[in-house]
Write a structure and sequence with these properties.
Cyt_trans-like; Rossmann fold; elongated; 4 strands; Cytidyltransferase-like domain-containing protein; nucleotidyltransferase
Length: 97
């Protein structure tokens, strides 16, 4: 029987990606297939009270390109609902490379 590969969820706003984001994703990739959730502009504003500096589609594209360049198995999505709700209800569907 083949061993199931782990799925590792990494979530954040990734608004101005920095070394900590890179480290987090690289470390997560050592544990299994990485699924990155990028908060939407509206969620960022709800939780921080501020609009993001970089629009959501650009943040998503930056994350996808970063992961793809490192040949990491992944999926990346924008999320409309709070992350705790999504994970609790197992409704996460990612667009893979």
């Amino acid at each position: 029987m083949s061993e199931l590969k782990r799925r590792v969820l990494v979530a954040g706003t990734f608004d101005l990606i920095h070394a900590g984001h890179i480290y987090l994703i690289n470390e997560a990739s050592k544990l299994g297939d990485v699924y990155v959730v990028v908060a939407t502009d509206d969620n960022r504003e709800i939780f921080s009270g501020e609009r993001p500096i970089i629009p959501q589609e650009q943040r998503l594209e930056i994350i996808k390109n970063f992961i793809e360049d490192r040949l990491i198995d992944y999926g990346a999505i924008l999320i409309e609902t709070p992350i705790m709700y999504t994970v609790k209800n197992k409704k996460l569907t990612a667009q893979t490379a």
